[in-house]
Write a structure and sequence with these properties.
Length: 359
Amino acid sequence: MTLSRWEVSSKELCARFDPDQLSFETTEALPSCEEVIGQERAVRAMEFGLNIQDRGYNIYVSGIPGTGKSTIIKGMIKRVAETQPVPEDWLYVNNFQDRDRPKAIQLPAGRGREFQRDMDRLIDSLKEEFPRVFQSPEYQEQLRLLEDNFAKSRESLSGELEERAKEYGFAIERSPLGMVVIPLYKGKPLQADQLERLDPEVQSEIQRKEKEIHVYIHTFVHQVRALREELNAKIEALNHQVAQYTSEHAFEKLKEKYLPFPKVWEYIQAAQRDILENIKDFLSEPETPFAVPGAEALFISCTGLQGHAAIAALEAATARPVVTSNQAQVWEALSLLEYGRPLHGYGRLLDSLVPARAA
């Protein structure tokens, strides 16, 4: 059987084309081809899907990687989007009543990013203004007057307590752990051994009066605590007043700008209230790493023996006496032994060690 009938000449195997027939020099001069070659059915399916306006419909595209699917789809979506109105902006903002459930706000296209920039500028300006105002001489003077009035009231109560104790034949001394009641005999403090040598009736009378003095001390402590709470309330009211006056203009200007958008206006109003309630977040950090407002001392329970090395550093950082369980046990034992020499380097409690045991 001959195969000559299937032979193809070399001239027939090569397709020849005359470049002079082309009307351009290079393909860079040609317009881009917007058509998808060989995928007419897929194109019709995409166009049909993109024209569906109802919710809940999706388009799934599959094919061999590297065939231009993403480029084709993006181009088709872009052409459709150019014929549609610009979608509005959606923002998620903080819900100050329930921080786990942010609120969604709708704004005209472009206004969402503008509102974000406005809020950023507002917060940045408050971060500068609040520290400046709260460090001003005018504010410091008002704060000093409040603290001076508190100190005068406390000293007045303290003087009354000391006078009452004197009438009962006692002296009151202050220590890092509170007040120490010391019985007097002929105007001089009684030592523990001297007290034991007194007649039982005298000792009983001293103990009875001491109990009454402790009642007055308890009342004094509650009165001072009430004065401290009143001072804190006045300082908080002063801070709120100063912060509101400082930020009012900026907030009113922003609320006026977004008055046509009720939800945005409500959010600005809520943000203003939250900022005024948390004004401390905008102020400079304290000079020490720990803030203990209102605390007279710090107690650390159940510490290991190595904890004594941190007491001095904590006291320096907080400007408050620091007492640990072990330190208190040492103080108690040395007091029972009437060991009267201070032990330096282990905190203020042992620095102020006195021979007489606290009553």
